[in-house]
């Protein structure tokens, strides 16, 4: 490929860092993270080397879902600070060459948003801003009333993703409104052109303030099909299957693209649903259609999940590979992938896909290696760069999340689950609150997150896992992230190289090459990752073995090799590691990750 044929975009070359403001850093001592707290840590972000910050919602909100229920899109939540604080943050980031991506939550608003207040009052102009419907005859369906007038059941059988029916009865308007999430998050009616206009104007307003893009919350739910049909095969009665990638979603997003988007912005759409058809994905990303830069799918996030929060599913590495392989293949010509294993809605990756015990450090680095050497833009979720782990939740009152508490309380009251104790293991592994415990800055009380009482428990392991300790130790996970980030700056092949998986069915080793052939020559990476706590031998195909490769990065200290039993292995040094690739025979230690490079 001639070098000038590479479709270069800054957001392909970037590494994104996600901040969940409530849990990042508290400057005013009220136990809740805030914007001035982020400003205090700007030099930290700069030292790590990230290029973009994605800031979870900081808008005015009654916090039924920690800011994902917005009551004013153009104001900052009091707990987080003021618009002037936000401007200081934007300037501070831009001064350090870090871009800012805001969260756009427009599938729903808060029920305290002015539009909803007016809509519920039946004000003409706002009458049709939400999904208002009449109830059904309760006798005709299986429904025992918990709300609404006697004899009335909700308009259809859809269930909320946060538990209970997807409809709430409003006494003022005397009708039911749709809420795919909490009852305090009514769904906006995108069929109404005035709603779309309001959203586009609000987006423009933020772009004019100087932001660099949007992460779009559950954006593939904005179009609902005519008649809101039920679906008995969907665990949510149709709410999920009928709302994802709905009939007019591309029309709405193309309109957004035409009106407000630009290839220079980073736009990433969060897309719910079990397995997105690739033709939809391509339309979301086609610059001539919806024009998003990337999307977040959930395919890999669902592998270990049962149907409910309190259920788990066994999974195998080959399934995880198959997901990433399908997405690389599907978007390699047209489109671009996002790469993540963590965010504010997911348990900590090292506890989930790695080994958070004896090999915490190694497996955190291995997972990082994966995310930063596949093709796509890597996303780091706060604390991931320290190898932060899940929280040892022990009782229900330690949780804060609606999506943990609501479904669980409902299941217990309906007798579907005996008690929290009975499902503790699964709930503590699955809960979104694992991601939301405070960032661990130091070994001090409350991990240096706040001088007050934190709004959610701080992981007791902060005495060992924290920023101060990580920065002081050159072999830490944190330093490894820095190395990965700088490799991306140094080697084009890391960003643009073609991905070729090896041994797709192997359940232990994930190995692949990345190759970039340009008129300047061919650059190649060989990546080998051992996803197990035992040593494994890997026989590479002849064409992958290489005489003149060097080890760019590895997660075992090459100078003082330690074998699986913890003994120093004098035979394994940088030369041996290179010799192994030359022979095509790798001996990978537990959770070992290696990245080789050669060029011809
Ligand atoms: C997205 C957000 C999640 C939120 C939900 C409803 O999935 O990431 O935190 O609860 O949308 O807005």
Structure description:
With 600 residues, the protein is an alpha/beta fold. The chain has helices spanning 10-13, 35-40, 42-48, 83-95, 114-120, 193-208, 239-243, 249-259, 278-285, 317-331, 349-352, 360-373, 402-413, 420-430, 467-472, 477-490, 492-496, 574-583; strands at 16-19, 52-55, 59-60, 72-76, 99-104, 132-133, 136-137, 152-153, 167-170, 175-178, 213-216, 266-270, 294-296, 338-339, 377-381, 498-502, 509-518, 521-530, 536-539, 550-554, 585-588, 593-599. The chain has an 8-stranded parallel β-sheet with strand order 13-12-11-5-2-1-15-14. Strands 16-17-18-22-20 form a 5-stranded antiparallel β-sheet, with helices on both faces. A 3-stranded antiparallel β-sheet has the order 6-10-9, with no helix packed on it. Strand 17 and strand 18 (521-530) form a beta hairpin. The chain is globular and about 80 Å long. The protein starts with 9 loop residues before the first helix and ends with a strand. It binds alpha-D-glucopyranose (GLC).
Structure characteristics:
18 helices, 16% strand, eight-stranded parallel sheet, 600 residues, alpha/beta, five-stranded antiparallel sheet, binds alpha-D-glucopyranose
What's the count of strands?
22
* Rg, nearest Å: 25 Å
Overall average pLDDT: 95
Distance between the termini: 14 Å
Summarize the structure.
The chain has 600 residues and is α/β, with parallel strands linked by helices.
Question: What is the secondary structure topology, with strand pairs?
Answer:
Elements: H1 10-13, E1 16-19, H2 35-40, H3 42-48, E2 52-55, E3 59-60, E4 72-76, H4 83-95, E5 99-104, H5 114-120, E6 132-133, E7 136-137, E8 152-153, E9 167-170, E10 175-178, H6 193-208, E11 213-216, H7 239-243, H8 249-259, E12 266-270, H9 278-285, E13 294-296, H10 317-331, E14 338-339, H11 349-352, H12 360-373, E15 377-381, H13 402-413, H14 420-430, H15 467-472, H16 477-490, H17 492-496, E16 498-502, E17 509-518, E18 521-530, E19 536-539, E20 550-554, H18 574-583, E21 585-588, E22 593-599
Helix pairs in contact: 12-16
The site of alpha-D-glucopyranose has 9 residues, from loops.
